[in-house]
Amino acid sequence: MEEFINYILQFGNLNKQQTDFIMSKAKTLELHKDEYFSEAGKIPRYVGFILEGVLRFCYYNNRGEEITHSFVDENNFVSDQQKFEAQMVASEYVQAVTNCKLLVFSKKDWDEIGNTILGWDAIAGLIMKNCLLKTIERRSPLVSEDATTRYSLFNEHFPGLVNRIPLSYVASYMGITQQSLSRIRKNIR
Predict the structure, then answer these.
(1) Cyclic nucleotide-binding domain: which residues (predicted)?
(2) Half-sphere exposure of 12 (CA within 13 A, CB side)
(3) How would you write the chain as a 3-class SS string?
(4) Do 117 and 167 belong together in one domain?
(5) Could you tell me if 116 and 32 lie in one domain?
(6) Are 148 and 171 in a shared domain?
(7) Domain of residue 149, residue span
(8) Both 96 and 125 in a single domain?
(9) In this structure, are residues 7 and 49 in contact, taking their beta carbons and an 8 Å threshold?
(10) How far apart are CA 149 and CA 187, in angstroms?
(11) Are residues 31 and 99 in the same domain?
């Protein structure tokens, strides 16, 4: 839990009473590999902080192909924030790629934190902005670089992740076939 407190303190000053209040609203959620944190067609129930494991955001394109568009690993927030805040139906899935342990906040508890702690909305806004910027920073090179460079950048942005998750997800994220990814990996060794 210390990781979570240290993480939020990067974005604003909170005293012990405030961090204790935030922790009192947190619940622990364990997801097994392949279980969903949030599902398309349903209203997201939580905003979470990953203590252990990896989750991915994915959707199905108009040809019914599953597309992975981002990964989130330990010591990061995970949520379909826009849909969570508006309590609207999600259009994508957030799925556990490994067994995961998270601290989660329901909409009611998340709002209660915001209504109780002066300045929490600014901290939460900075956290969400940071999450979005990380996603964009990791995603942007995938558009303009060749596949070998994309794979190198993937390993740079997600050190060790390629050994923890199915290669089919990595290939989908990179926008290439699994066979192409296997060739790239073989050539790099």
Answers:
(1) 30-113
(2) 15
(3) CHHHHHHHHCCCCCCHHHHHHHHHHCEEEEECCCCEEECCCCCCCEEEEEEECCEEEEEECCCCCEEEEEEECCCCEECCHHHHHHCCCCCCEEEECCCEEEEEEEHHHHHHHHHHCCCHHHHHHHHHHHHHHHHHHHHCHHHHCCHHHHHHHHHHHCCCHHHCCCHHHHHHHHCCCHHHHHHHHHHHC
(4) no
(5) yes
(6) yes
(7) 142-189
(8) yes
(9) yes
(10) 12
(11) yes
Residue 172 tokens read as: 């989908």
Task: Give the number of domains in the chain.
Answer: 2
Residue linked to tokens 């067994």:
99
160-170 per-position pLDDT tens digit: 888 899 999 99
Residues 6 or more apart in contact with residue 37 via CB below 8 angstroms: 29, 31, 46, 48, 55, 78, 94, 95, 96, 100, 102
pLDDT of residue 140: 66
